[in-house]
Amino acid sequence: MLKIENLQARIEEKEILKGINLEIKPGEVHAIMGPNGSGKSTLASVLAGREDYEVTGGSIDFLGKDLLELSPEDRAKEGLFLAFQYPVEIPGVSTTNFIKTAVNEKRKYQGLDPLDAAQFLRTMKEKMKLVQIDQSLLSRSLNEGFSGGEKKRNEIFQMAMLEPKLAILDETDSGLDIDALRIVANGVNELRSSNNSFLVVTHYQRLLDYIVPDFVHVLYNGRIVRSGTKELALELEEKGYDFIKAEVEKETV
Amino acid sequence: MDVKTILQDTYTASSSAQSGLSAFQQENWTNFSNWGLPALKHEEWRYTRIRNLFSDKLIAGQHQLPAKETISSFMLPGLESANSIIFVNGYFVHELSHIQDDESSLIVKSLETASNDEDALFVKQNLGHSARYHTDGINALNGAFAAGGVYMRVKKGKSLTAPVAIYHFSDSSNGLRFSQPRVLVNIETGAQATVVEHYINWGSGDTLTNEVLEICTSQDAVLNYIKIQDEGNASSHTGTTHIRQLAKSLTHAVTITLSGNVVRNNLNMVMEAEHGESHMYGLYLLEGETLADNHTIVDNAMPHCYSNELYKGIMDGHSTGVFNGKIFVRKDAQKTNAYQSNKNILIGSNSAANTKPQLEIFADDVKCSHGCTIGKLDEDALFYLRARGISIENAQALLLHAFAMDILDQIKDEHVRTFADKLISNRLSFTI
């Protein structure tokens, strides 16, 4: 599904990703963990195509296509989805109208007819249940005045509507209480299948109690320094990131 | 023939000594002759060059009238049976106009008629008041042709059942058409009216319209005024909307400019009594080589008045938006609340915005604020939309439409708002 090889990226003059290698196969859930400033969110942004970052080396293959050659919108239409760490508030654009536009642009890209109003409404109602999101929220301006939990649920709702092949969740757990976290995680789990994959970027192990990953990677200083199974996350939770930092520094000496 | 001669001939042909307007026209013609057209060195016209719009090919004076069906085809959707006032080439045409409201509520007649009947005193006292704020040749030139204008009175305590739509047809089929509509509106005590202006370039040539609209509101009157400019980029416009709040009243003005080669709008709110309230909203959506210049004045002469003003601009291509907002608070106008804001988004790499707030405050107990921004579309918002698969063009259109919504929402008449929204959506070329 996704194959990242020796990916390097920087913002302005600062090098952030210093050679990332990662392969995700259909149906797999990968978690990327790491201390603050290790490059987790940068990786998510580079995958989604944010132009603030300059890719200086390496390659990303997504379903046989060179991802780096695609615009952000085409990446989305090819089946990549980024759940934002900080969903943007956009006054004046209704959530429903926005999602309808996104869904139909994707359908057009796939050579399908746009959903008519009734079909769209039916799909929307179905997906709303998944994340327990209210109709009244969707008729409001996109994310404007939403609580932290509402914003994150709205991200998962959009994901459900767009049915991506690869979803990247960038610190989706940040700022959520346990109830909201459970709702969000349930939504994600409902969408898991053998055809689609997830890349869960998180600082804390907490989310991984609910979204159980197949693989866990530790990102530190722009590189993946450890990979393992879900037990690695538990070890990190127990020992903190300092033990990884210490080990990495010992190795490089 | 040069421009002056063309105008002189038209003036001589149209002025009549019997009219109650003849002295007024004469005075304005003299002023125009002395002052000429404003040049860039005139402080009020720094950014807006209009002299070159007056070519010697200009055609003035009345001409053939459009057919009734032509008029109907340009009516605002939903307002087909509302009150309509038809101007053709700057001349009020009574027989093409349609007054829906009863005579006990609404009187519409030529300005010349009004200057000779029971409304003569009102005309004498109020016509030309805008010249105190615009001592320039362009206002005077319109005054010289006032005989072609219209007078409208909304009677005491009456609330009109339908908006009054003023349609300005300019016949450009034989070349550059010069039109000078003049309107005087009297909204009596406790009366309520919505006035909508719309401009139509009827032909394939250029047009130039120089308009003066003066409105007086009396005690407890309510006025909603909407000006929609979408004549196409072969049309230029200089216009003044001058609103005097003679007593405590409420006015609400929305100006939407979607096209036009060179467009200059003056909007004045003269707060002549205590507790007056005025709202002024504007949206200009420009492209190509065009220029739109909105000059507004709020003149607070008396205490306890409130005014709020928000103008927004979106400039694409090589277009230029100009905003100049003056707020005067005179010595006696204590407890004035006056707010002003101008926000601009530059889309075109060669587009420009000039914005200038100008507050002159002579009272010491007032609340006044102003702010202006010139920027680009929010990159984070744009990326968010694109990351959902929305094309950059549609993402821009969605954000620009949202930006424009603040102003669109201020149009209270549903039909007019829907119409304006459609024009804006078409312009932003939103496609799926």
Write a concise keyword list for the protein shown above:
heterodimer; A: 253 residues; alpha/beta; Rossmann fold; six-stranded mixed β-sheet; four-stranded antiparallel β-sheet; 10 helices; 12 strands; globular; B: 432 residues; 2 domains; ten-stranded mixed β-sheet; 21% helix; 38% strand
What does this structure look like?
The complex is a heterodimer of chains A (253) and B (432). By secondary structure, chain A is α/β, with parallel strands linked by helices. Chain A has helices at 40-48, 72-78, 95-109, 117-130, 135-138, 148-162, 178-191, 206-210, 230-239, 242-252, and strands at 2-11, 14-24, 29-33, 53-62, 65-66, 80-83, 90-94, 141-142, 166-170, 197-202, 215-220, 223-228. Chain A has one domain: Rossmann fold (3-Layer(aba) Sandwich). Chain A contains ten helices and twelve strands. Chain A has a six-stranded mixed sheet with strand order 6-9-10-3-11-12, with helices on both faces. The longest helix of chain A is centred in the middle third of the chain and has 15 residues, at 95-109. The mean pLDDT of chain A is 92. Chain B is of the alpha/beta class and 432 residues long. Chain B has two domains: 3-273, no CATH class; 378-432, no CATH class. In chain B, a hairpin with a 2-residue loop joins strand 1 (83-88) and strand 2 (91-92). In chain B, helix 2 (22-35) runs antiparallel to helix 6 (137-144), helix 7 packs across helix 8 and helix 8 packs antiparallel against helix 9. Chain B starts with a helix and ends in a 5-residue tail after the last helix. At the A-B interface, helix 2, strand 7 and helix 3 of A face helix 7 and helix 8 of B.
Largest sheet of chain B: 10 strands, mixed
Class based on secondary structure composition and strand pairing of chain B: alpha/beta
Low-pLDDT segments of chain B: none
**How many discrete structural domains of chain A?**
1
Globular, elongated, flat, extended or rod-shaped: what is the shape of chain A?
globular
Give the strand line-up of the largest sheet of chain A.
6-9-10-3-11-12
**How many helices of chain A in DSSP terms?**
10
Number of domains of chain B: 2
**Sheet of most strands of chain A:** 6 strands, mixed
Count of helical stretches of chain B:
9
CATH class of chain A: Alpha Beta
Share of residues in strands of chain B: 35-45%
Assembly state: heterodimer
Order of SSEs of chain B: HHHEEEHHHEEEEEEEEEEEEEEEEEHHH
**In the CATH classification, which architecture of chain A applies?**
3-Layer(aba) Sandwich
What is the CATH topology classification name of chain A? Rossmann fold
Gyration radius of chain A (Cα, Å) is 18 Å
- Rounded mean pLDDT of chain B is 94
Helix content of chain B: 10-25%
